[in-house]
Request: fold
Amino acid sequence: SNQPKVWTIPYFPRLAEPKAHQGFLSDKVYDALARETLEQGLWLRGMTAVGYAFGWRKSEVLKLQVCQLDFSDRTIRLDPGTTKNDDGRVIHMSNEVYHLLSACAANKQPDDFVFTREDGEPIRDFRAAWANACGRAGCPGLLFHDLRRTAARNLRRLGVSEKVIMRIAGWRSRAVFERYNIVDQSDLADAARRLDEKREREL
Reply:
């Protein structure tokens, strides 16, 4: 009865972690996408601006209510328990986000959703409108989630610390953040350009 039930421990191969999607959005393409999303509706234009600026998850954007916006302080509040990692956070609006959210929230009650269709129906599925806007803007196949990656890169380029970027976008783990903070070819070219400029100054 004291004999082991299993003589050898079976081998369980570790599954490879799926690679992060590689999509990025340049400023030029974002400008085109901004025009096309507005054609689909103010709600999609506003959602795109929030995703591009702050890298928020789609679920966090869709659930946003008017009571979470403070236009006097120009802040957006995500309450603890309402985000993927359950952490709350307060974000200061950029000018673009401020003006778009002001328009989206106009004449609404505090418990209304910020992003709604013209009939007041909350946005739940916007895949068709998104695909249409992306196709017309010249970026077919772009995912809304790619805005999350783009926001991290843009903030890093502006010199924002990784700690602050993680706070804005809601990354708790630096390991997960690193999967999104992908360097693209323009970053590598910019690094080479800076090295050349440094060398020229020293000559």
